[in-house]
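Recall from the previous lesson that a structure prediction takes nothing but the amino acid sequence as input. Here we apply that procedure to C2 domain-containing protein from Cicer arietinum. The sequence below is the only information supplied.
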Amino acid sequence: ITATIEKDLWASGTVNEEYLKALNSLFSNFPRLRATEPATLSIPHLVTSLKTGSEACQEAALDSLFLLRQAWSACPAEVSRAQSIAAADAIPFLQYLIQSGPPRFQEKAEFLLQCLPGTLVVIIKRGNNMKQSVGNPSVYCKITLGNNPPRLTKVVSTGPNPEWDESFSWSFESPPKGQKLHISCKNKSKVGKSKFGKVTIQIDRVVMLGAVAGEYTLLPASKSGPPRNLEIEFQWSNKAADPTSETV
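The prediction returns the following tokens.
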């Protein structure tokens, strides 16, 4: 069946939904098949069908991926890892289904997404209102995620609204559940305050949405003048992390 699906994709770019339903039926009725090499080899075709097929094809492909995922806890570790890596190509489309797909797709899409390896990218864009009474501050950010070593932005000395536009990435075997990102904004200048504040951000939401951006207020709050904040963007995807990233 996998060979037939592959032939269909090469010939027309689409798959007959009956082939997908037959594959789903096999996985459903013969659970041991889910841990086999042919099952692993079918995943790229299931992902392609999920991305490009009709709604009926998408549903059959999603059902098959869901059944495979259910078996990972009982599979040999190398099998579940190979299958999860292959299925990670579906991350962007699963995020789309959660936000815009048919309601009946959403629960299975969420279940799959919560188990696939991916990359978290944090982009520190700029800071606002980093003022001090004398001179320009030399501002940088310290980013800490879990027990990983802290990461630092460059030091910027161009006034109260420093711009970094720096990205930092971490690769995960599975999405970070309940983890918090801690970002502190500091002044390296010998003049003025040494710290502008910090912010703690729960990062679970970005896994489902794909990208989240906003302004985050630093605490403690400024006693005079407007609040100090950081403009930050978060991304979760199946894209390979840059060579300086860390694996979690």
